[in-house]
Design brief:
Oligomer: single chain
Number of helices: 26
Number of strands: 15
Distance between the termini: 95 Å
Largest sheet: 6 strands, antiparallel
Shape: elongated
Structural class: alpha+beta
Length: 880
């Protein structure tokens, strides 16, 4: 197994002194030294994995928290149903203790195994067997993972999210052959690059790499430009959650004083920019697009700092962009999936500190003195910008700097440098929080309430709101394995931390583990791809290091070493991600360009019609309460309106106390109210947002309609009520509605099951305009041919004449007509006793009919006709 070929001149691939070998006094053959060190690393990995398994098994077996009690406490505090809470105290403790114990397990395992190195030195064939066996084990495990239903939801699978790369498109076998051939040719190219290629050719290749990366970054920018008229409901909902708080900070509110933000204090950072350029939906999307492009640009520059070879760094970057951003957005849909909540909100500062960190590590001492304050400041600001990723970025920066100082041979110097880093990091963190206090006090006259800073993290992470348990066998196993290897790598090179890529791996290990907490809580498939980019960069660094070893052997003469197998597996993943990105590049570019330059969807845009209505009746920069669910930010931005209620946006309205604050504001406000009643969430039968019925009830009791769109989908209200309830529900009442003009939107999910004898009583006023023929006032029948349930519908030449009829399952039974007085309120009472229908209006008999058949109840929800131009003030259905 010994390779007696002399080492050839190594080709620099980007890391100074990038050999994987450790000093070994007993073996002179570098290939055997490498083999033994790889075996030690493999045994350390296996031992660490075993320790982690035992730790997690003990936690799972003996830790039994009361999950029901956690849910009960949260349900009493929130307005959401219990089914939306999935607390994960056991899984959370497993994750946290695993991270805490991982370096200890690795250090202990490595120290013990390294002491047994002499045995491997005498038996190099055993080291070879360990290495090859581990590669075979990993390949089979990887193939096993790909055949699992990876998402931990019954009858669901993640295949849709992990079948866009080329391996899934052209097949594993063909992919393995093609990528192996590419790897072989690529290694040959690297070995001969400096021998056969002239400097001008290398410069051309460098330019080509920059152009490809530039086009990718440009596409990310174009893809993220937000045009309101082209958006579907789910895009509006997701963007509203990020945009609303920006509209209110721009209008004059202060964060942590009279408004909070689920995704961090980023509006405070962006406020000066929007004060210069102005705030609108389009401008907000433009800034988000620019920040996204900036994030990936910084990642590319950072990767090039640590992997200096142009082609290798480009492959790593393309793989990162594909998995982090594009893999879950393919195939492309009618409108982009922006999800600004992560990109750029959770992506920007990790990219900034990553670039600054690798720049600092590779800079001269004079330049380092200038970069260090900037790095410490940006890492501290990251916590304010977004606390979720900010803490991970700050911790990675702090730990990476300290790690880079470790040098047992110069302990005094290490302590001195560590103290300097400690002072800068802690000083900057205290300074940015002090600056937050001062700016908030000057702007609002009040000190910020810092207890709200982590409010959403406590609600989501502790209560498990919209969380999902991790499946033991899942795609997440792969980045988790990379992080374990990264930690082992950091322990291996603990005494060689001056190398840029060594300290960078330690930085990425801490950053990746911190970001992984996002997936641990919210374990949806699309989440793992957006948090594993530090693992992809680590893989690139590992491959870059192994290349220098591979280039020392005559690979082109097929003189093999197991280092090739260790290199091949991660490099195939990187190459596959890179070529997948290149494969989809024409499609993503066309789609992104179309999004940026073809902004008119050609459809009737209801939101812009509503915005025009609001701007017509509400002056710019006025105070107005807008109740519009996930549309509210676009309405507030249209006129730079100020919300008089000191609450977060509707998309973030979770706590019961906040909801009651909103109800009290509706009762007491003297400002205008805009109510968007045509939003799908009001009628969503899946989530059953019962609380919005209460909002409608409060509006009906305390406000009066002033104006609205013809279909009443958007109405302007003022405080004060002119109608007094007249119908009184009792023990026989099946359904009651006292919402006046709002009742056409209530009861959407109500299914009426009527007995043999029942009554329908309602108070109605006709509008000034004549009713359209066959207009439905209200009904339980889904269609005219369903012949189930009952209906009140206009019939006859007189537009004020209506009929009541019900279906027996095969036909509509004999109806009873009645006329409504257009000048007064009509109190209509309809009595059904067995087959007999009797109708009264304002106490006068209108008619009677014997249907000779019983009503067949409808399985469809009860609804009010939107085309009805009058007003149903109240309605009551009772059993007789």
């Amino acid at each position: 197994m010994k390779n007696k070929q002399p080492k050839e001149a190594s080709v620099n691939t980007g890391s100074e002194n990038s050999s994987l070998s450790l000093p070994n006094d007993n073996i002179s053959d570098p290939s055997e030294i490498l083999r033994i060190n790889l075996a030690i690393g493999v045994l350390t990995l296996l031992a660490t994995t075993l320790f982690l398994y035992l730790l997690n098994y003990c936690i799972y077996t003996y830790y039994k928290p009361d999950v029901i009690d956690i849910i009960a406490k949260m349900v009493s505090l929130t307005i959401v149903p219990p089914i939306d809470f999935s607390p994960e105290p056991v899984e959370r403790l497993q994750f946290q203790l695993s991270l805490l114990c991982l370096p200890l397990f690795i250090f202990g395992a490595f120290t013990f195994i390294n002491k047994k190195k002499a045995f491997l030195q005498k038996n190099t064939s055993i080291a070879f067997t360990i290495n090859v066996g581990s590669i075979v084990l990993f390949v089979f495990y990887f193939l096993y993972l790909l055949n699992q239903k990876l998402l931990y939801i019954h009858d669901s699978t993640t295949a849709a999210f992990f079948e866009k790369n080329l391996v899934c498109n052209i097949g594993p076998f063909i992919s393995l052959v093609c990528y192996s051939l590419f790897t072989y040719l690529f290694i040959i190219y690297l070995k001969s690059e400096k021998v056969y290629l002239k400097k001008i050719a290398i410069n051309i290749i460098s330019i080509i790499c920059y152009v490809i990366a530039g086009i990718i970054i440009l596409d990310v920018f174009l893809y993220n430009i937000f045009y309101l008229r082209a958006q579907s409901w789910d895009r509006l909902m997701e963007t509203n959650a990020v945009f609303y708080v920006m509209t209110q900070v721009y209008a004059g509110k202060s964060l942590l004083v009279n408004i909070n933000a689920q995704y961090g204090l980023y509006p405070l950072f962006l406020l000066p920019l929007f004060k210069i350029i102005g705030l609108s939906t389009f401008k907000f999307g433009l800034v988000m697009a620019a920040l996204n492009a900036c994030s990936f640009f910084l990642f590319y520059l950072g990767i090039k700092k640590v992997i200096k070879h142009n082609v290798v760094s480009l492959l790593v970057f393309l793989c990162l962009v594909f998995w982090q951003y594009w893999s879950t957005r393919l195939p492309l849909e009618s409108t982009p999936r922006y999800y600004y909540q992560y990109a750029p909100i959770r992506l920007l500062f990790p990219s900034i500190v990553f670039f600054l960190f690798v720049t600092y590590q590779s800079a001269s001492q004079n330049v380092k003195r200038k970069i260090l304050p900037v790095l410490a400041l940006c890492a501290s600001l990251a916590i304010l910008w977004n606390v979720d990723t900010g803490i991970a970025a700050y911790g990675a920066t702090f730990a990476g700097l300290i790690y880079a100082t470790l040098d047992p041979s110069a302990l005094k110097e290490s302590v001195k440098r560590s103290a300097k880093y400690f002072g800068w990091m802690l000083g900057c963190l205290l300074s940015v929080f002090l600056l937050l206090l001062i700016v908030t006090k000057l702007r609002s006259g009040e000190w910020p309430d810092l207890k709200h800073f982590l409010e959403y993290q406590q609600v989501f992470y502790i209560s498990g709101f919209y969380m999902l348990a991790m499946s033991p066998l899942h795609f997440w196993n792969l980045p988790a394995l990379v992080y374990v290897v990264a930690c082992i790598f950091s322990v291996f090179y603990l005494r060689k931390t001056k190398k840029t890529d060594v300290s960078t791996v330690a930085f990425l290990f801490i950053l990746g583990c911190g970001l992984f907490a996002y997936f641990q809580g919210r374990s949806y498939d699309t989440t793992i791809t957006i948090v594993m980019y530090p693992a992809i960069i680590c893989l690139g660094i590992f491959c870059n290091r192994m290349l220098s070893e591979i280039q020392s052997y005559r690979v082109y003469r097929l003189k093999m070493h197991e280092i090739l197998a260790f290199f091949l597996v991660p490099f195939i993943f990187i190459a596959d991600g890179a070529f997948s990105m290149l494969f989809y590049m024409p499609s993503t570019h066309s789609f992104a360009a179309a999004n940026a330059f073809t902004n008119d969807s050609g459809t009737d845009n209801r939101i812009e019609q509503k915005i025009s209505f609001i701007k017509k009746y509400i002056p710019a920069k006025d105070t107005v309460l807008i109740l519009a669910m996930h549309n509210e930010s676009y309405y507030y931005a249209a006129g730079n309106y100020y919300n008089p209620v000191d609450l977060n946006g509707t998309s973030e309205l979770l706590m019961r106390a906040d909801f009651y604050t909103l109800l009290d504001s509706i009762k007491n406000t003297r400002h205008a109210i805009i109510y968007d009643a045509n939003h799908p969430m009001v009628f969503d039968p899946l989530h059953k947002w019962r609380t919005y019925d209460t909002v409608i009830q409060t509006l009906a009791k305390y406000t009066t309609i002033q104006n609205g769109l013809p279909d009443n989908s958007l109405i302007l209200l003022k405080h004060g009520k002119t109608y007094t309830d007249k119908l009184i529900p009792d023990s026989n009442t099946i359904y009651y509605n006292d919402l006046a003009e709002f009742n056409i939107y209530l009861g959407w999910n109500t299914k009426l099951k009527l007995p043999e004898n029942f009554s329908v009583e309602f108070i109605v006023s006709l509008g000034k305009e004549k009713s359209v023929k066959n207009t439905v006032m209200f009904s339980t029948a889904a269609t005219p041919t369903s012949y189930h349930g009952f209906v009140v519908i206009q019939q006859g030449s007189n537009d004020a004449q209506y009929v009541f009829m019900y279906g027996n399952g095969t036909t509509w039974c004999r109806e009873v007509p009645f006329a409504l007085d257009p000048f007064v309120e009509n109190h209509v009472f309809i009595e059904v006793r067995k087959n007999m229908i009797t109708v009264y209006n304002n106490g006068k008999l209108c008619g009677q009919s014997d249907t000779n058949s019983e009503i067949k109840n409808s399985d469809e929800p009860f609804f009010f006709g939107k085309a009805f131009l009058g007003t149903v003030h109240e309605m009551k259905v009772s059993k007789l």
